[in-house]
Amino acid sequence: MRPSDAHEVSQLNELKIDVGALVVGAHYALTGQQVMVEQMPIFGGYAGGLEATTIVDVATTLNSFVMMQATWHLDGPIHVRWGITTAREPLAVAGHAARAIEEHTNLILGNQYYTLAGPCTVMCLLETAAQAITDTISGREILSGVASAKGVTTDLFSAMEARMMGEAAHAVAGMDLHEVNVILDKLVATYEGDYKTAPQGKKFQDCYDVKTLTPSDEYVQVYNEAVKILTSLGLTYWDK
């Protein structure tokens, strides 16, 4: 591995850690590695509701640097019912936690993406955009995704979701927080009523040319449809 490559160690829910992780963390610290400490607070779990989960998220993040000597922290507040990071409540937790930490520290923060819908669906792209918007406007430095369809099925992801993650982040960079929050509220409302019927989408080999590694015409059309929705909500990035 390169000296710049990050080594991962994970905390447990909530605000717990096992002996194995402590040993691994100590090894990374003593050998001078780049360390990424990961933890995913659960909204609706042990911590409870929005405010308490946000406090736990902040505490977990700070603990990564204090106890584990992290180089950077990978967050991922997740909904106990849906198992995703793109629902309204986990987005609020992630946004408030990051904003609070960024206001008072120079710590490097990341967030991981778990959508409910799968690749080659408008819903998946809109979910991704909502989280990228939240992460960017709240000051996170690293976006880590996308684990489409909750990241539990082989081959159910593609680079098009990552493209949306990047472009949505660029779309809101430098915008006013309150203006973006209005857009974000409308954006989440476009998909949160479809959780029970979220489309699984298509596997990588079914929406990509596996030889040229290019998306299918169908996926390009789906992507453009998602872009139209985001543009109608007030994002001007794709009009340039």
List the helices and strands and how they pair.
Blueprint: E1 6-10, H1 19-30, E2 34-38, E3 42-43, H2 50-66, E4 72-75, E5 78-79, H3 88-104, E6 109-114, H4 122-137, E7 142-147, H5 159-172, H6 177-189, H7 204-207, E8 208-209, E9 214-215, H8 217-232
Parallel strand pairs: 1-2, 2-4, 3-5, 4-6, 6-7
Antiparallel strand pairs: 8-9
Helix pairs in contact: 2-3, 3-4, 4-5, 4-6, 4-8
Short description:
The chain has helices at residues 19-30, 50-66, 88-104, 122-137, 159-172, 177-189, 204-207, 217-232; strands at 6-10, 34-38, 42-43, 72-75, 78-79, 109-114, 142-147, 208-209, 214-215. By secondary structure, it is of the alpha/beta class. The protein has a five-stranded parallel sheet.
Account of the protein in words:
The protein has a single domain, classed as TIM Barrel. 45% of the residues lie in helices and 14% in strands. It is built from eight helices and nine strands. A five-stranded parallel sheet has the order 1-2-4-6-7. Strand 1, helix 1 and strand 2 form a beta-alpha-beta unit. Helix 2 (50-66) packs across helix 3 and helix 4 runs antiparallel to helix 6 (177-189). The chain is globular. The N and C termini lie far apart (40 Å).
